[in-house]
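job 3f2a | input accepted
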Amino acid sequence: QVQLIESGGGLVQAGGSLRLSCAASGRTFSNAAMGWFRQAPGKEREFVADISQSGGGTFYEDSVKGRFTISRDNAKNTVSLQMNSLKPEETDVYYCAARTRFNSAAGYYPEDEYNYWGRGTQVTVSS
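job 3f2a | predicted structure (127 res):
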């Protein structure tokens, strides 16, 4: 089992950067692929990025590719999302999530594929 806690959210100006972190507890972290999602009030939760168990593979939603970087440190039980050139429309609650199903390759996975979720951290991008 995996428990996840996000941190690093806050207020940033458009064009600025934030680094989100997700701390995982549990002895199965290294067996879990990880993802980041985001959600605005009244909107559906959107996929952002995914990373494989080893960290060797990553996958990004098209709108963030080249600006966001997902990474993980299995020794520290953390996964991060570096966000650069942030836009006001990316004001959302950001969630980290873990996949423990058979599919280990990084890629797009719907939210139902993720077994565990953090509580989210608010990111606000001002214009």
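job 3f2a | DSSP finds no helices and eleven strands in the chain.
job 3f2a | closed
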